[in-house]
Amino acid sequence: MKRGARPLTKIDGEISFEDVSFEYPDDRNPVLSHINLRIRPGEKVALVGPSGGGKTTLCSLVPRFYDPTEGRILIDGQDIREVTLKSLRSTVGVVQQDVYLFSGTVFENIEYGRPGASMEEVVSAARMAGAHEFITGLKDGYNTYVGERGVKLSGGQKQRISIARVFLKNPPVLILDEATSALDNESEQLVSQSLERLSKGRTTVTIAHRLTTIQNADRILVLSDNSIAEEGNHEELLLKKGMYYQLYTSVSEAEKNT
Ligand SMILES: Nc1ncnc2c1ncn2[C@@H]1O[C@H](COP(=O)(O)OP(=O)(O)O)[C@@H](O)[C@H]1O
Ligand SMILES: [Mg+2]
Which residue's CA is the nearest one to ligand 1's atom 2? Predict the structure, then answer.
């Protein structure tokens, strides 16, 4: 963090990538090359592309898990290297495939999203995440012990607890990185519904393993060969008959065969 860093202020949720390039420090292959991208406040953007194409890496630059090798990223016009990490990370919520629940109660695991939150606030977040019902069915409700030595929860239940956490945190910017890809069909549907509620009114970048779930995105970006190869909405990209079309038709075939 630079000296004199101040908190991010007046957050509408606009994200700008200005000529951003990136390579991981320990292996000097270019992962992202000269990315220019402006995401409007509240816009729903989907990132697709081949595995290893840099989707997760691109998103990890926003909460500064890594810094660009070149170029800069701004949120609402403020260079993210010039604001405090604390304010940046409270602005950006991330839901990933792997959910981390620590050893503690369900309440504590949700409250982690905003330390000091009341029971009422935790319950309200759990309701919005579609988690309240199964939580109250556990033997000690919100006081049930989870984590390594606690009750065993399904992948979908854990994911809904992690979504409740983000509801509580209430960030204006949201990153959903293959959040449902480890789930079976039924819990995938439940979790997808929760994620849809969560993304309402927030700038959202979704990395989807299933192209069928992102057709309503305002804009789809195809990331390939270190850069954005195509962008547009679902219909526009299908008409182009380019990479998205190919991904979409091959994936639809594969999904038909399962
Ligand atoms: N922590 C890391 N250190 C070094 N290389 C990495 C690391 N994480 C990912 N990579 C490499 O960066 C490239 C992009 O990976 P990633 O962003 O995970 O792609 P995607 O999410 O599109 O599958 C890949 O070549 C991958 O091997
Ligand atoms: Mg990834």
Answer: 24
